[in-house]
Amino acid sequence: MEYPSKLIENAVEEISKLPGIGKKTALRLALHLLKQEKEGVRELSTALVELRENTQYCQSCFNISDSNTCAICSSYKRDGELICVVEDTRDVMAIENTSQYFGLYHVLGGIIMPIEGIGPADLTIQALINRIVATEGQVKEVILALPATMEGDTTAFYITKKLKEVGVKVTSIARGVPVGGELEYTDEITLGRSIMNRL
Amino acid sequence: MEYPSKLIENAVEEISKLPGIGKKTALRLALHLLKQEKEGVRELSTALVELRENTQYCQSCFNISDSNTCAICSSYKRDGELICVVEDTRDVMAIENTSQYFGLYHVLGGIIMPIEGIGPADLTIQALINRIVATEGQVKEVILALPATMEGDTTAFYITKKLKEVGVKVTSIARGVPVGGELEYTDEITLGRSIMNRL
Question: How many interchain CB pairs under 8 A, A with B?
Fold first, then answer.
């Protein structure tokens, strides 16, 4: 595709590096930005750079945070006996939205994916173990809330094995038919598991 | 939704101002940027600001350009007797991709949309008329390549009326059954028009 100017070509090139955004969408977004106030585009641009350069991670749970220790880890209302292990920040937000969980979190920063070259050492698994050991028995249960995929299961298996050595109870969130879900439209594997793991 | 940090909240806020991008996608993009090299994010950010601040428009056809006069308007290979009127840069790119048109362009910068508050004065219609008058009869034909929507038709009607006063021939791109299209799957209006406007 021939672009009418170098500036737009460069912008399309950069925008289309974002996941799920192709050249056509990138061009549409670039033309949209051209019609906006200069101030608005500067605000967007600054927000992106500041996000990348100034974002901090909680020293304890590795969630994104404005300070060294995140709001959840530093809250006296949270139950320090429970740690919920998740893949990333979005999962923390999803669980927080349920208002059903009052323990702490541990953000792995990904899951084990050998194809992508992500191994246990790239995640915060060792930090989780150190964290549990450091509390000297305060942590009673680690809840694994990982994706229900092969990679998620692999990661769960690895963490479970490691935590057994530490001697802490490890559980997983329940897999089953979603609330409001019809049995006939549920896939066989989910339905099979939900029978196996009946309460 | 509660975000884990002000920086990410701000970034999501800014990204979700883009058309077609909601809060969930914005968060996904923000988390993607957090995993990228700082240099990459700075490049994206600079590309956006430079696009907005330094983009020039061709003085003659109002297409996006790196200089005062765009590559098409300044090319001696293009036929100055033909002007093709389009809504925006994307249409110029689409027509250029056909390699079937060798005349000049005129970019309106939008179409007449009363609901959005866009009237003829917000577009480059008067500049088109001035441009044609200034060439003293060099322009023989103006081809309208506007969207086949109610707004596109309104704009075409308005421009046709204005250009009649100038005394230049005005044509429109053909509407009809797309090449490769089956008659039975073509909507009635298109099919009806394609019979009416048979060659």
Answer: 167
